[in-house]
Amino acid sequence: MPITTQQLSQWKQQGRTIVALTAWDYTTGRLLDGSGVDLILVGDSLAGMLGYETTIPLTLEEMLHHAKAVRRGVKNALVVFDLPFLTYQESFQQAMHSAGRALKETGAQAVKIEGGYPAIVETVAHLVQAGVPVMGHIGLTPQSVHQLGLRQQGKTPTDSERLITEAIALEAAGAFSIVLEHIPSELAIQITQKLTIPTIGIGAGSGCDGQVLVTSDLLGLSEKQPPFAKMYVNLSAAIAQAVQSFAVEVRDRQFPKK
Ligand code: KIV
Ligand code: NA
Question: Which cofactor is essential here (predicted)?
Fold first, then answer.
């Protein structure tokens, strides 16, 4: 049975840590699922893999195409579809339409949207009441890169108060979980303690209920990666080595063997 959004809240009560990673294709989805990852986010960080500089140009169509592929590779993990920039902010109808396409066309079980300001909280409530599970995302929200940059958020007392208020409002609106990105770890702990739904941290310290990384950062496949990411293996180096070996053997007529 696939993992459900309700199970994640039970795990929080039980103190079981949630393991989340991003995937953008069938192979990655299959490998992550096979390795026991609990939650697979089809992140709009897909933009980087497609060669865009930010997540802003990414379209709903591009996300749908990749999410379908990921979903085909996943049996157990909860698959979350990251709604791209300006596919949910325009109106409730737009958010409903985009979320509907995400769930119905790809088989993802939930959507994620960025922000915690009042209009977003109302959008979350609308989606949840219609039966769409929603994950929140506050702190550094990369879709607002031209307003915020990629700096750590929640550093001043006012800003950290605002983030606490937003987290509580998102939970009250029915979000099943919230991503906390690039905020001080003490603030992430405070938010985590105030909520009954699980927090999933990225660059938010070790006090969250779960952790997420962008899989290409973990695998050493990203062109650049944030300071809080950890590279567990350098696949870029491994690929370069394999390709160079192939090139040498082809040029020397050593491959294929006679
Ligand atoms: O798009 C993404 O990969 C994300 C995670 C970093 C949370 O939003
Ligand atoms: Na994202």
Answer: Mg(2+)
